[in-house]
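@channel sequence for tomorrow's demo:
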Amino acid sequence: MRKSLTDRIEEYIKVLINRSDQQQIEIQRAELAETFSCVPSQVTYVLATRFTVKHGYITESKRGGKGFVRITRVTPHAGSDSRLKADIQELVAHLKEDRHIGESEARLIRQLLITLFTELSPEQRQLVLSRLVKDIGLYVGWQTD
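structure tokens (generated this afternoon):
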């Protein structure tokens, strides 16, 4: 069965993210649209529907000539403490980078989250982190559903 354009774009982006050490990529809508011979709005649709906080991604974008889309995966892999710590680091780094918190708050939040998450089962981690990312996303204005 042939995959839809939307499915192929999603798959392509996920492969790029999986290959990234930081589980994060920066792309340009126009370049991605050119790669798939589609209009940039098709790429925007994929980003808005498939790469949301609900699906375990933070999507940030800057429009214009030097614009980009940064997509970061923040969903922990079940049972992986190192991946969990990396996801927490990434989440806190985004908050700090966007100037929502300072260095002392970042250290405190990192430590509290790592302590909390190490006591949870992999299933609980997934649920709590997804909810936490969604709530933080709403608070700071990240693209959400």
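heads up for whoever presents: Strands lie at 24-27, 57-62, 68-73.
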